[in-house]
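#lab-general

N.A. 3:47 PM
ok so I finally got the sequence cleaned up, no stray characters, all 66 residues accounted for. can someone with queue access submit it? mine expired

B.Y. 3:52 PM
send it over

N.A. 3:53 PM
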Amino acid sequence: MTASAPRTCMEDPVHLPGGWPLDDPAPAPGCEHCAELAADRAAARAAGDLSAVSDANVLIRRHPAH
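B.Y. 4:20 PM
back already:
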C-alpha cells in the first residue's frame, strides 16, 4: 500500500466578493488634493504602473470627508 501525496492546494476555489476589482473612486468635486491624486492615477495608468494606480485609489478612498 502506498501513501497518497500530500495536498498542495485548497479544496475549493476562493471567490472574491462581487464587484471585484473595485471601480476607481471619483475624486471629490472641488477638492484640489483629490484632483491631484486622480491626475497621478491617470499618469500611473498610462505608464503601466498599476501599483501606483492602486495606491492613488486607496488615498482617494481614505481622504477625509468633504
